[in-house]
Amino acid sequence: MSEKILNQILVEIKEIKTDISTLKTDVSNLKEDVSTLKVEQQKTTTHMAKMDERLSNLESKQNSIHKQTGKLLEYHSETISHFETLATKEDLEYFDKKISEHEREIFKIKNA
Question: Where does this protein have coiled-coil stretches (predicted)?
Fold first, then answer.
């Protein structure tokens, strides 16, 4: 009986060794996967840093555009207000007629 038990123990030990070998292989594969994930995570971190920098640049440019647009709007408003104070075509026609009338009257007065 003791030989039978020893054989059974030997079979069990061989199975355990096989299981341990399989576990070692699995652990090795997991280590490789973790290493690959770390590399990918580093790449992602680098990419995110570049994106943050680009976003900061875009925000800076957007602020510049906003300021310039404000200045242009102010200039446009000033220009429009100056146009509003200028004489219109109708005003110029009126002045032309009035000046002509006054010139005629002055001519009549001088020649009378």
Answer: 13-40
Query: How far is residue 4's CA from residue 74's CA, in Å, rounded to a whole number?
Result: 102
The length of the chain is 112
Q: Which of 23-32, 37-46, 101-110 has the lowest mean pLDDT?
A: 101-110
Residues whose CB is less than 8 angstroms from the CB of residue 87 and which lie 6 or more positions away in sequence, other chains included? 95
Single out the residue of 58, 78, 56, 55 nearest to residue 66, CA to CA: 58
Q: Considering only CA atoms, which of 98, 78, 79 is closest in space to residue 90? A: 98
For residues 22 and 17, give the distance between their C-alpha atoms in angstroms, rounded to a whole number. 9
Separation CA 102–CA 94 (nearest Å): 12
